[in-house]
Amino acid sequence: VLASAMLPSLLRFAPVAVASLDLDGRICDANDALLTASGYSRDELIGQPFGNFLDPVDEPGPRGNFGALAAGAIESYHVQRRFITKRGDVRDVDLSVSLVRDAHCNPQVSLAVLQDVTPHKRALEEAARRAAELEAVIDSLPAAIYIGDEHGIRRANRAALEQLGFQSLAE
Predict the structure, then answer these.
(1) What are the residues whose beta carbons fall under 8 Å from the beta carbon of 99, sequence distance 6 or more?
(2) Half-sphere exposure of residue 67, counting CA atoms within 13 Å on the CB side?
(3) Which of 61, 69, 93, 112 is the most exposed place for a label (fewest CB within 10 A)?
(4) What band does 2 get if pLDDT is binned at 50, 70 and 90?
(5) What is the tens place of the pLDDT at every residue in 34-57?
């Protein structure tokens, strides 16, 4: 009972975006972090299906998860989704949804916690792009280049493979 009484304060002041959802998936409340991240006002969010703010390209998986959660068959789930802000920006989020039960252990509401991972995902994409560029530069150099460690040669460009008489490093 104490935990239930504390829930509104925990929701409101959490440093990450949090929404409480009824068992039909409609938003009951949203904290300030979600309002700031989404660009919506609390009044614009409350009563709306949470799925309306998720990119439909990601369907159908999470709705099945929510149905199982609302029925009490699972306690929580975690997925990566794309959240659409009021401005139409698409943000990559880690979405964790947990069931909250009443004093009789019946499903009561759920809490959706969204962590924006867009900057991290963009940094990984940029690192992969730069690694591919570096691989292309190394491969195009006329000098033989070998990259190795204590286990042997891990990477050799075309010139190095030709020098060794190989078609690929696997040989």
Answers:
(1) 69, 70, 72, 74, 75, 76, 107, 110
(2) 5
(3) 61
(4) very low
(5) 999 999 999 999 999 999 999 887
Residue among 114, 75, 81, 98 at smallest CA distance from 7: 98
Rounded CA-CA distance 139/124 in Å is 22
Beta strands in the chain (DSSP E): 17-21, 27-30, 76-84, 90-101, 107-116, 146-149, 152-156
List the beta bridge partners of residue 91.
Answer: 83
For the stretch 99-138, pLDDT in tens is 999 889 999 999 999 999 999 999 999 999 999 999 899 8
Q: In degrees to the nearest 10, what's the CA dihedral of 154, 155, 159, 161?
A: 40
Angle at 162 between CA 158 and CA 165, to 5 degrees: 140
User: What letter does residue 52 receive in the DSSP assignment?
Assistant: G
CA–CA dist 138, 35 (Å, integer): 47
Alpha-carbon distances of 65 from 91, 151, 158, 166, rounded to whole Å: 21, 45, 49, 51
